[in-house]
Write a structure and sequence with these properties.
The protein is of the alpha/beta class. It is built from 5 helices and 15 strands. The protein has a 6-stranded mixed beta sheet with strand order 5-7-9-11-14-15, with no helix packed on it. A hairpin with a 2-residue loop joins strand 12 (about 190-195) and strand 13. Helix 1 (about 30-40) runs parallel beside helix 3. The longest helix is centred in the N-terminal third of the chain and has 14 residues, at about 30-40. The protein starts with 19 loop residues before the first strand and ends with a strand.
Length: about 230
């Protein structure tokens, strides 16, 4: 019997999303609580119900994970998985709680970079990038000749150029290249990131807001300066 579908009921597609990674290097609840409060205070709306992945590479063994887990979610963060868990007991506990443990993507990316040279080209967008849209320029620079609205997201393996107002999120060097940069003619971004290192709008110097700017990565931090 032949069955004809007018519409495909399901579809699987690859996509790119921004996910914050919390590096949990301490098991002291007061330190974790203070750090999270300070970060969330910078941009409450950005962190509200934000999905996060927790890196446990430096997390002390024999820690009271259940108490720390309760503390993290009490701040309104949503844990979606873990990476680099080397403690077998903790690994089993995480699996019992129903969370996935992802592969170490950083090491995979470094291996990919050694084995494969990334050739950058340019992808152009001339229309406004609206809230909820995510534009990903794979192995390319991304050039937008219009505005990027709040809630929109630009991701590029190469550099990002915005010849308009940048109000959403911009993430350059998405595959781990710290040499990539972000350029825009009017900076008011919710989040700026170079190779995974990020800063929020509250960290942008006030004398640079609404001005032409260049964003780069130097000495372990995201640097922003006027053009």
């Amino acid at each position: 019997m032949n069955v004809k579908y007018e519409k495909i009921p399901l579809k699987l597609k690859g996509s790119v999303f921004t996910t914050l990674v919390l590096y949990l290097n301490s098991n002291k609840k007061n330190i974790i609580d203070y750090f999270l409060r300070q970060e969330i205070k910078k941009s409450p709306e950005f962190f509200k119900n934000a999905p996060i992945i927790i890196n446990l590479s430096l997390f002390p063994k024999n820690s009271n994970w259940r108490e720390i887990y309760k503390l993290i979610i009490s701040h309104g963060l949503i844990i979606i998985g873990f990476v680099e868990c080397n403690d077998s007991y903790l690994k089993n506990l995480i699996k019992k709680l129903g969370f996935p443990i992802f592969s170490n993507t950083k090491s995979l990316l470094n291996k990919e970079k050694k084995n494969k040279k990334i050739v950058h080209k340019s992808i152009f967008f001339k229309n406004t990038i609206h809230s909820g849209q995510t534009i990903y320029a794979k192995k390319s620079d991304l050039i937008v000749t219009n505005n990027v609205n709040e809630g929109a997201e630009l991701i590029a393996d190469g550099n990002i150029h915005v010849y308009g107002k940048l109000r959403g999120r911009a993430l350059a060097g998405a595959h781990g290249d710290h040499t990539r940069k972000i350029f825009c003619t009017n900076l008011y971004a919710e989040l700026l990131s170079i190779s995974g290192e990020y800063c929020l709008i509250d960290s942008i110097p006030k004398n640079i807001l609404n001005k032409s700017a260049q964003v780069s990565f130097k000495n372990g931090i995201v640097c922003i300066k006027k053009l």
